[in-house]
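agent: user wants the full assembly modeled, not chains individually. Plan: 1) parse entity lines 2) check alphabet per entity 3) run joint structure prediction 4) return tokens. Steps 1-2 passed, two entities, 520 residues total. Proceeding.
--- entities ---
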Amino acid sequence: MTENRMMVRVQIMGESYEVPEGSTIIMAMEYAGYQLKRGIGCREGFCGACATLYREKNDYKIKGGLACQTVVTDGMVIAQIPFVPAEKPVYNITELTPDIDTIKAIFPTVFRCVACNTCTKACPQDMEVMDYIQALKRGNIERAADLSFDCIRCGLCALRCPAEIVQYHAGTLARRLYGRYLAKKSPEIEERIKEVKEGAYDGEFEELESMSREKLSEKYYSREIKLK
Amino acid sequence: MEISYFPGCTLKTNGRNFEGTALPLLELFDIHAKELDDWYCCGVSFSQSADNLMQQIAPIRTLVKAKESGNTRLLTLCAMCYNTLQRAIFFIKSDEDKRDIIHDFMYREGTKFYGDEVEVVHLLTLLKEIGSEEIKKRVKKKVDEFKIAPYYGCMLLRPKEVAIDSSNAPEIMEEILEAAGCETTYFPFKTECCASYQIVNNSEIVKARTKKIVNSAVKNGADVIVLSCPLCFYNLDEIQIEIKKEDKNFKTIPVLYFTQILALLMGIKSEVNNFSLHYIDPTPVLKRKGLL
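--- prediction returned ---
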């Protein structure tokens, strides 16, 4: 199968292997015989489980990326990270206030940010990581929640930060605070939850559950979406 | 007129009484302060160590934002931010080698900064440019026998390269407040350092300084002290409570940002003053003088 493919030579965890050109780091590791149980997840770039550090030929820079999204190059040196052992503070979201004092108490390291931008450079999601840390520094929880929304919590920012900030957990706190205290409340949701709890839709659910696959499919594709 | 605006972190939190009064004040002069998008904490104080280039990155990034915005006159209210940004400009202008290192470090960001592209201006300077006549025109309330002690501290005056006025005998705050119809009082400690960040590791130094500064203002008949620096504000305001605990004879005096007085005189609604952020309640004296 591989005879016609071009091969590249890479180093995985210190051992040299020939792997097919165009492979992702995950594919290359599996080709080399690794069975991955940690540091691997969805293989689609969404889950953030496969943070990896690598260096390319003739380059002194250690780079980071997602192993399922980064394509190997000839001479690449790869270290797959099983997980990032970053500190994850425990807090009860119902006891917090959505302001700078909460950030100070739970993530004091945020205030060490010197705006070097290393976190942003490390982010495989191309997010403005430094900008959301700076937003937290001035107590703008909403902006931090917004800027950190696409975070998949791979942890590369924290691995690279010279100020030892755990950006991705701080971003999570911002989004939780925003969701619980600052986001505009939707009365429609409350109303609908109440209806669900009171059993207003039980009959319809029972009807759907008893349908055959074909009928269910037909009903699904012919459905009308009603907007108020 | 629109001017780029860098608030700094404190003005968004403990210094809301400063920003809250300054921005509506500027609107009275048809000046709209346009906040930079996603600006960066200035680093809070200018790094003095020769090998700590990293500390220069944050203020330079903010200056780059101002350069990119196209509106390159950058207004600051916080004396600390003013000092840090101005000194970052002097630094990058005066040391080519270090400037190159910083440019190399910021290679991914695109825009380079050489120092001449942005002018940092403090609100006091802007008000002086606007002039006494224009200030006078907007004053709605008249106060009698209300003595204000303007306190400068260090950040507006030192080093002299960044000073907004004479480093030894500044008058700019007096000029502006007097144009607005206030009486100012001279007190010899108006340019004395409040001990700044010593509050973190040795608050006794701050206590001693605050006591000296406040006693001097009180002795010279001041009703309030006004200033422009959030750290001076904290040291002079909250620490008076600590001094009072130890010395029952100590006479406290309210501390305000100069913009609070101007906003009250110009009839801006008093809610923007956020008086709950003050440790020494200024409302009794302001009521007595007819400003509230």
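agent: reporting back. The interface with chain B takes residues 99-100, 113-117, 121, 128, 130-131, 134-135, 137-140, 143, 147, 162 of chain A (CB under 8 Å). Residues 167-182 of chain A form the longest helix (16 residues).
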